[in-house]
């Protein structure tokens, strides 16, 4: 096992250092230029759509744009936004935060492209519901069913099995540290809560995350805001330190500028998930009259994840000055110490609750992605899955997810994390290949949306005839209704 672990580590090091980061940054820059800086010129529209969608009524299995946004945010905003950012500062110094911000800016354009494509190629599923994502546009638009099924399996295993285990393990550890509650008790509670949510299907998941995400993010951002206000005199120096160390790292940072840059970029990429092919699965479920609408909403999710939640952690750690570059105190423990220095001995308890909310929302959000992709196999008689299993895929998979919650609560997960990194690298390459080939259709959709807004149309409507190739476009029938 140790030999296999070593091989996977070597592969991950090569993929993430020389291929994945180059591909993600390169594609992000290209999409930024091709969309004419969608992350800037549509910034006002992003937040208009998000705020306007709060509390929107849905019928049947419809999922609103705001609910889809909350599902994707639930998956993106996890313990990595707390522990991961603290680790980045200890490893790469304050300058790593700057590169997190830069990669989020670039990733917004990629997020727009992949989410708009998911909307264009989504499939109706009855009662006003939809599903879709990379597996669907790979099969229906690129006509590569083998690659599509490979992607669906990879993302299902990675998110609903491996990542769910990681989140469960983090919850039981935080709860035991703060409250002294045994692992087994917490594990069973998490498993029951998970079952109650996921057996309700995607509609219940959407409604659950619509309620949970704003409250959990608000609680965490409030604690960070208090720290900022209490240390307002240090804020200018903190920003100066971040920018200075981004280009001239402190001597304690092993590896110099390269280490700062790579740490910040990797933390940003893991955090906002732009280009990895996960967020489009949530984006595709939203109802609406134009695909660019959800693309714009999901692009804002990259900002919310990195510029708000990750920055909240960074500010809390930097302003309280509890960190030591290269030190042993890192991750959640460092954030606990930072909060305790301001709020006192009850801070670890509060953080345990926040970690629970963040991690559990990620369990639910990650499962959501898997459900969308496992539905890809429902009723599949191709022989890839035995017919009996294919007909009962979803319930079998749900039981497996709950089992992984229990297993993950006790497992040693260093190997699982490295395995997840490998799977995620393959997911990235597969999805980036697909959106590179289909990108022009998201640009056409964006141009059409902007043109209609300029003409005074309040809610632009998409007509599939504007696409020069309509293979795989099944959910947009406004042409027929007109």
Write up this protein:
The protein contains 20 helices and two strands. It is mainly α and 482 residues long. The chain is globular.
Write out the strand line-up for the largest beta sheet, numbering strands in chain order.
1-2
Average pLDDT reading: 82
What about the largest sheet? 2 strands, antiparallel
Q: Which class best fits the helix and strand makeup?
A: mainly alpha
Summarize this, please?
The protein is an all-alpha fold and 482 residues long. It has 20 helices and 2 strands. It has a two-stranded antiparallel ribbon.
Highlighted features:
single chain, 482 residues, mainly alpha, two-stranded antiparallel sheet, 74% helix, 1% strand
Topology:
Blueprint: H1 2-34, H2 38-41, H3 43-53, H4 65-76, H5 83-92, H6 95-120, E1 123-126, E2 129-131, H7 134-140, H8 145-179, H9 183-198, H10 201-230, H11 235-247, H12 256-272, H13 279-283, H14 291-320, H15 331-343, H16 347-374, H17 387-391, H18 393-408, H19 414-454, H20 478-481
Antiparallel strand pairs: 1-2
Helix pairs in contact: 1-6, 1-12, 1-19, 3-4, 3-14, 4-10, 4-14, 4-16, 5-12, 5-15, 6-11, 6-12, 6-14, 6-19, 7-8, 8-9, 8-16, 8-18, 8-19, 9-16, 9-18, 10-14, 10-16, 14-15
């Amino acid at each position: 096992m140790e030999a296999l672990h070593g091989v996977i580590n070597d592969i991950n090091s090569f993929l993430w250092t020389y291929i994945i980061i180059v591909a993600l940054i390169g594609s992000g820059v290209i999409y930024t230029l091709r969309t004419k800086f969608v992350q800037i010129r549509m910034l006002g529209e992003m937040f208009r759509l998000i705020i306007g969608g709060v509390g929107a009524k849905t019928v049947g299995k419809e999922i609103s744009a705001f609910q889809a946004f909350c599902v994707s945010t639930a998956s993106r905003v996890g313990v990595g936004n707390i522990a991961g950012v603290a680790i980045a500062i200890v490893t790469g110094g304050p300058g790593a935060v700057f590169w997190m911000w830069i990669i989020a800016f670039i990733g917004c354009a990629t997020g727009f492209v992949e989410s708009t494509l998911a909307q264009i190629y989504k499939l109706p599923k009855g009662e006003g519901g939809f599903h879709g994502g990379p597996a669907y546009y790979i099969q229906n638009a690129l006509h590569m069913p083998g690659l599509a099924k490979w992607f669906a399996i990879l993302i299902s295993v990675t998110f609903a099995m491996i990542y769910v285990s990681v989140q469960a393990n983090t919850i039981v550890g935080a709860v035991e540290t703060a409250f002294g509650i045994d692992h087994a008790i917490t594990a069973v509670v998490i498993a029951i809560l998970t079952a109650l949510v996921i057996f309700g299907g995607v509609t219940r998941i959407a409604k659950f995350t619509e309620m949970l995400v704003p409250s959990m993010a608000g609680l965490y951002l409030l604690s960070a805001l208090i720290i900022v206000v209490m240390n307002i005199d240090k804020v200018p120096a903190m920003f100066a330190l971040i920018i200075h160390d981004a280009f001239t790292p402190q001597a304690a940072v092993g590896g110099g500028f390269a280490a700062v840059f790579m740490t910040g970029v990797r933390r940003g990429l893991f955090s906002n998930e732009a280009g990895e092919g996960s967020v489009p699965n949530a984006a595709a479920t939203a109802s609406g009259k134009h695909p660019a609408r959800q693309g714009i909403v999901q692009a804002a999710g990259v900002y919310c994840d990195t510029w708000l939640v990750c920055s909240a952690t960074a500010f809390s750690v930097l302003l309280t000055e509890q960190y030591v570059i290269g030190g042993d105190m890192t991750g959640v423990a460092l954030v606990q110490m930072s909060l305790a220095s301001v709020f006192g001995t009850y801070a670890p308890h509060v953080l345990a609750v926040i970690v629970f909310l963040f991690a559990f929302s990620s369990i639910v959000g990650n499962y959501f992605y898997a459900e969308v992709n496992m539905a890809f196999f429902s009723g599949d008689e191709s022989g890839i899955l035995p017919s009996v299993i294919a007909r009962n895929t979803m319930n079998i998979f749900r039981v497996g997810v709950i089992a992984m919650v229990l297993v993950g609560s006790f497992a040693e997960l260093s190997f699982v994390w490295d395995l997840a990194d490998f799977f995620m690298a393959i997911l990235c390459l597969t999805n980036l290949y697909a959106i590179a080939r289909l990108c022009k259709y998201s640009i056409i959709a964006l141009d059409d949306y902007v043109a209609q807004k300029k003409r005074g149309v309040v809610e632009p409507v998409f007509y599939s005839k504007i696409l020069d190739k309509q293979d795989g476009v099944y959910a947009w029938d406004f042409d027929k209704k007109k």
